[in-house]
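#onboarding

Welcome to the new folks! Below is a worked example of what a typical request in this channel looks like: someone posts a single protein sequence, and someone else replies with the predicted structure as tokens. Don't worry about understanding the tokens yet, we'll cover that in week two.

Example request:
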Amino acid sequence: MSIINIAEQTIKEYDLISPRDRVLVGLSGGADSVALLHILYELSERLGITLAAAHVNHSLRPTADRDMEFCRKLCEELQIEFYSMTADIKSGAANASMSEELYARQVRYDFFSSLSYDKIATAHNKNDAAETILFNFMRGASIRGLSGIPYKRGNIIRPILNLTKKQITDFCNNNGYEYMTDETNLEAVYTRNKIRLGLIPNIETEYNPNFVNVVTENAALISEDSDYLDNAAKKYYHGRIILSELSCLENPIKRRILQQHYKKTAGTHNNLSAKYINNILMLINHGTTGQKTELPGGFEARIQYGELIISPKQTPLSYEYKIYPGTLLKIPEIGKNVLITPSEGGGIFLDNTEGLVVRSKKTGDVFYPVGMTGKKKLSDYFTDKKIALSERGKIPLLVQDGRIVSVIGMRNDRRFTNEKYIEYKIVLKEINDAE
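Example response:
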């Protein structure tokens, strides 16, 4: 079977393209993308599609301009629409604190998406899938990471994923299709290049000449199993993770629920590695309220009164403002206004209003709650009231000369209940409500 027929069969089997689709090919100028362009060009009438190509000049190699011009001329010869952009990947990656490889990928996909085509076709092949599987395995990826590269994700499609690198280069060479060679792909500098140039050839020579096919076929089976377990986990995930509900489930289902919750809360398509999932499971099994573990991308997982919360890392709020009776105080950190006014039935009594401040909680705060005996640590009071750690800094305190007058909106201090003084009330409102 010719590779054009193999690609057509792949397109049909995985429902990659529909009639009248506008398909954009990511064209680097290398053998893979050139082969993909010619294959889709040959199939375009049969598939009923409109074809175009896009190229991103990364400005990383002396030959980058040559490659862009080659892609332009190829599209002119085929009489298809061509788009290009030039990006300073080195500076952009440094400013974004990202690797050049990851930043370049983001720039490419952002550019391709901005062109608003129905499908974006990329030239990933079986060798790419094998490299990805080995790369992910060495990084401690979850089972999803060992499933290889999907044929379709959203509107991104990979029509030649079922072809090996040799099949692709033979196709180009046998048909006289010129292509460019990225010299950096021949340098064993990046981890992926080391896998491509060293590890896989060594495995094929020393252990199994059919390794690429074997590993990608196994990955397809792993992907099917993973899809089945993901669908099973969806039956138990309802947007929240209540620890008591999770405890009766088997670990394979738990892990997928945690992945689903992370993706939902972090707004990402990426899976957590096995290391982070194991850390969360340990937190669930042995943690108590307030305990947490760090996750990638500035997120954290924490236990909060029988529930697992995944959210951006919490930066403790810290604020302190002087307040004067009759003058509205705006506290932008919590989006609230505070107003103190003389009033019967207000509940706090002050012999003077000097040194009044509204501030956030501090370590070691104690007060004497009305209706209770003795003093109480503010942290214990919040715990009793089941106030989440992330919410405690948002509760303002009225303080005078270091003594808590009121946990505003919750409980006053009984040291300020002497009725021989002037009585005040505290009004707490959302900023928008008060203005």
